[in-house]
């Protein structure tokens, strides 16, 4: 393969979980493949492999973040400490955040409708049901807080002691801050 001579400088934006990284791509004018860009500090970012399918951001400290596998379907964020966050499975439908401590947070099921946050301690917080209308926050102690009913109009806060706080009725006209059953 001939040495790339003419290049374009392109700005590309990558989304790393909740963070956004803006990277400058040195792209060959002949083969259109992104090349390796190294800053004066020696911090290198590999934007594409020779096949053009794998994208890796690596800092000078050796902290590596793999954005896409060779098949382009799996996205993995891995720090130098071995803490891995899997953003998408090979099918692209399941999203899982898992830390090196084994604390797993499932953000979306394969159907994309159920969202569950679960820590390693077994504390589970269900954010949305499969229908997408009910939102429930429940701690491991059994303390449940219902934020919205299936109709989306009623909001109820209930503690484990049975003390219920109704914030809004279905009509939105009634508000009761404290109610003991």
From TrEMBL:
Superkingdom of the source species: Eukaryota
Query: What is the name attached to this protein's record?
Result: Protein SON
Organism source for this protein?
Amphibalanus amphitrite
The gene name reads: Son_2
């Amino acid at each position: 393969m001939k040495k790339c001579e003419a290049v374009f400088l392109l700005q590309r934006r990558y989304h790393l979980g909740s963070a956004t990284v803006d990277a400058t791509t040195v792209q060959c004018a002949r083969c259109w493949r992104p090349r390796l860009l190294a800053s004066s500090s020696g911090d290198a970012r590999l934007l594409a492999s020779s096949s053009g399918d794998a994208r890796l951001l690596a800092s000078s400290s050796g902290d590596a973040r793999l954005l896409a596998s060779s098949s382009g379907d799996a996205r993995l964020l891995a720090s130098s400490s071995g803490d891995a966050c899997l953003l998408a499975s090979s099918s692209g439908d399941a999203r899982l955040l898992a830390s090196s401590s084994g604390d797993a947070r499932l953000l979306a099921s394969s159907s994309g409708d159920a969202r569950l946050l679960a820590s390693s301690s077994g504390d589970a917080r269900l954010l949305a049901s499969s229908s997408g209308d009910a939102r429930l926050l429940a701690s491991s102690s059994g303390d449940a807080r219902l934020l919205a009913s299936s109709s989306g109009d009623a909001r109820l806060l209930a503690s484990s002691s049975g003390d219920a706080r109704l914030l809004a009725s279905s009509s939105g006209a009634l508000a009761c801050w404290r109610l003991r059953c």
